[in-house]
Amino acid sequence: MESENITVVTEFIFVGLTQSRNIQLLVFVLVFIFYLIILPGNFLIILTIRSDPGLTAPLYFFLGNLAFLDASYSFIVAPRMLVDFLSEKKVISYRGCITQLFFLHFLGGGEMLLLVVMALDRYIAICRPLHYSTVMNPRACYALSLAQWLGGFVHSIIQVALILHLPFCGPNRLDNFFCDVPQVIKLACTDTFVVELLMVFNSGLLTLICFLGLLASYAVILCRVRGSSSEGKTKAMSTCTTHIIVIFLMFGPGIFIYTRPFRAFPADKVVSLFHTVIFPLLNPVIYTLRNQEVKTSLKKLLINN
What we know:
The chain is mainly α. It has one domain (11-304): Rhopdopsin 7-helix transmembrane proteins (Up-down Bundle). It is 74% helix and 3% strand. It is built from ten helices and three strands, in the order βααβαααβααααα. The chain has helices at 21-51, 58-85, 94-127, 132-135, 138-164, 181-185, 193-224, 230-258, 268-289, 292-304; strands at 11-14, 91-93, 173-174. The protein has a three-stranded mixed sheet. The longest helix is centred in the middle third of the chain and has 34 residues, at 94-127. It comes from Sus scrofa. One of its GO terms (molecular function) is G protein-coupled receptor activity. It is found in: Cell membrane; Membrane. This is Olfactory receptor. Keywords: Cell membrane, G-protein coupled receptor, Membrane, Olfaction, Receptor, Sensory transduction, Transducer, Transmembrane, Transmembrane helix.
């Protein structure tokens, strides 16, 4: 792609996850099986929540959004990665790379904000139960959902805008299996210190702040439920534990990737694989397996069909 006679790179070449053919085939089989089994499960969760009149609480509305986000997120990297495993030359166009990067951060940023919204929902439900139905009414839920999508869009647009202003005149080999900010920036034909700093603030610092804020909010919730009844305490503890597990799965890799200088580390590709392919498909499943109401509705749906 040419832009003002500076950018001459028209495509990027992925180095890939590994150069070992045997390991590539092993990862291909494992990811394909995982993808084939778990991805339909996410859509089944959405169908279950939408078809059961008993699952109308805000918690299930947001869980359905999470399943949709994660299912959509899994289409950004995994299908192309599976095709590239079987290809000799792993090439993506400049525009394709920017598009992949945009949707990666659009959906990833949206999911990060959704987890914040879900934490707010649990805080009000457990710590302000008398005000819950008033505060978390349908209009508020839709407004929070819209804000989450808009937040992800703004976050991603900032990333893309910073990348588009960089000149790329070669080399064009990306040391990864997908397009992301740390690898793309390193190929720019200019000093990228300021851009890297802005990226760390936009992605890394925001991720870290949200992560610490979420942990603090759930710590407050757990402290508040200590004096509640045994049944209520058990349910609240189970819900909070589930949310905390997903928070670590979502934010842990993000903090590792985006809160440090964009230099290559040996664990980068493995962390990226789990962050972009494995964990997004697992998050809604974790919620479902630890939620008795959803499991019951899911069984009814499967039996009736």
